[in-house]
Amino acid sequence: MSRDSYSLDEWYVVLLARTIRDRETVFHGFGSPCAQVAMHVARHSHAPEMLLVEGATYALNPQPEFIPPTGNDLSLQAGSVYQMRFEELFDAAARGDVDRMFLSGGQIDGYGNTNVTAIGPLERPKVKLGGGGGGCNMSATIRTLTIWTTRHRSGRTLVDACDFITDMGHPRATGRRSSGTGRGPEWMITELGIFDFDDTGHARLCALYPDVDVDTVAVATGFPLRLADQVEQSRPPTRAELALVRRVDPLGVRRSEFAPKELSRTFRAPVAAV
To answer: 176 by DSSP, 3-state: which?
Structure first.
């Protein structure tokens, strides 16, 4: 890619990174290359004082030379200021000391509840997923969540109701209610658009990529699509942001999360220098 050409996966990681505020303590779950890359991009750009917690090693502010293909690689501890114990992270989340977590799922409903347990009835599921790994506890106590998926277009990921709620989003009229310190999802980023959450806690489309229209998003979304007052075009990445993505992730591990059709999406509109 040239300086002014970029692929969807690069833009997507930039969008994830932009959900992070400076001075936040941020954590990502297992097997999350896009979120992992995004956190390192944010820390080397607009959020230099964030505290980055690696998702499998629990290393704080490591300085890896590259993002490896597996999340528990020794390289992800390089240069870290401290390596937390498993229970220390959960204690910190319970105290309200973790500001943001990146969370995805095989199913995501309109209120940001996610399912990583099973697709289909629990007594005889069609697909058994990996499980939450403590995400239920953390989704209730971490201050805010960035929900993300790269499988929106499939029509099977954003659903009206999850077959099982592993990790809690916003309260809804029926179902579980969080009693923890968490405020629930703030953003949901997909390969089709950007969502925020309205006053009722429901996702609403607020921005699109230039090669996607509202009808395409509506067809792929299993819950009634709500729109912001003005649905804008997503702000393109800057040259500096693109350079960071490529430097942080020279192996392109972020690309492993996308279907081939999505990886073929490229953009050539001019990008800002900064």
So the answer is: coil
Q: What angle do CA 230, 234, 237 make, to 5 degrees?
A: 155
| Predicted model pTM | 0.94
Q: State how far Cα 156 lies from the chain centre.
A: 17
- Out of 3.40.1080.10, 3.40.50.300, 3.30.428.10, 3.40.50.720, select the CATH number for domain 6-267: 3.40.1080.10
Looking at 76-137, which runs of residues are DSSP E strands?
A: 82-83, 100-103, 107-108, 114-115, 118-119, 127-128
Question: Does the CA dihedral 137-141-142-146 come out positive or negative?
Answer: positive
Per-residue pLDDT reduced to its tens digit, 2-53: 667 999 999 999 999 999 999 999 999 888 999 999 999 999 999 999 999 9
Among 116, 100, 118, smallest CA distance to 108 is for 116
